[in-house]
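We close this part of the discussion by returning to an individual protein. In the encoding step, the backbone of a single protein was reduced to a row of integers, each denoting a local shape. The sequence in question and its structure tokens are set out directly beneath this paragraph.
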Amino acid sequence: MNLKSRIDEIPDFPKKGILFRDISPLLRDPSALSLVIDEFTKIIHPNDVDVFAGIESRGFPLACALALKYNKGMIMIRKQGKLPGVTHKTTYNIEYGSATMEIQTNAIKKGQKVYICDDLLATGGTAKAAANLVEKIGGNVAGFAFIIELTDLKGSKSIKGYKYNSLVKY
């Protein structure tokens, strides 16, 4: 199965000049979603991860599916103001502006190995910010799992030094 065929391209979203890659069709297709999870299980060793972190919001289904597959927990890295309790936050640049996201301070135990999941690696700003949040609360970033990588934007440079994998490259 060709995963790229299960990803829609939406021009001028969320603003003019951006070509948005939408994984919604992939998530609706059980065989495509299963293939994504199977591909990551070939890459991620169970001993290399204690918990999966999903970046809001398209990282949530990937992190949740992997957490279930590995019998591990799942935590959320969310947009500012969406998590209850005490949080740490960071503001970072994205390809079309800036954003702020948060993690609950009690989301992980010190030293836990965290695999960060998102649908897309573009400039790497979101991924790097998520790594900073995980490390700020005492976690160790075990790696990143992305369904899509936009190679022309060179996001891998932003997460240099971290292990990462992407399944579909544009």
